[in-house]
Amino acid sequence: EAGVTQFPSHSVIEKGQTVTLRCDPISGHDNLYWYRRVMGKEIKFLLHFVKESKQDESGMPNNRFLAERTGGTYSTLKVQPAELEDSGVYFCASSLNRAQETQYFGPGTRLLVL
Amino acid sequence: KQEVTQIPAALSVPEGENLVLNCSFTDSAIYNLQWFRQDPGKGLTSLLLIQSSQREQTSGRLNASLDKSSGRSTLYIAASQPGDSATYLCAVRRGTDKLIFGTGTRLQVFP
What we know:
The structure holds two protein chains of two kinds. Chain A has strands at 5-7, 10-13, 19-24, 31-37, 44-50, 53-56, 65-68, 75-79, 88-95, 104-105, 109-113. By secondary structure, chain A is mainly β. In chain B, 36% of the residues are buried. Chain B has no helices and eleven strands. The radius of gyration of chain B is 13 Å and the shape is globular. Chain B is 0% helix and 58% strand. In chain B, the strands form two sheets. In chain B, strands 2, 4, 5, 9, 10 and 11 form a six-stranded mixed β-sheet that branches. A five-stranded antiparallel β-sheet of chain B has the order 1-3-8-7-6, with no helix packed on it. Chains A and B meet through β4, β5, β9 and β10 of A and β4, β5, β9 and β10 of B.
């Protein structure tokens, strides 16, 4: 069974540009989560999808971030326009059920905004 | 507000030692606690998940305990090996689904 995959693995962009990150969860997992770690800080939650619906987006830093999960399969996270402080590692995770289940993480996308 | 702290921040030990990594959380109302390892440049690998009703979980040389009332969890690694070198993270889940992560313990096991 394939794990959570993320694309790209690395992205280097200039301030003001747009970047779109993609996450493919484990097949059959209705729950999809985005997290990020900025330099020197702990990993922090961004948002949670149940199928195609946003269940909790309390961690989204501002309206420059837009997440979608059309059709309840893969998800994209767009940053537009990117700022220097957006640099970090963006992780995606998925789980089959909600409260009781392990969250399985992807390898992350390393974003560097210059 | 839930805060998760891990002590020590870094640890360097010779191969073969038994280790204890600590995780503390400020709000005891959790659903579960999960331990992960992260290798440099890689994603997170789930090691153990302890439900709030459980006291411990074991997998191979790893044993994780949970004392919810005191807001503590420990990860015990028996007979450490160089391949155990990684950053170890604990994360708690409360009423919502999001995980709240600790700051991590960076472990180095040298031959």
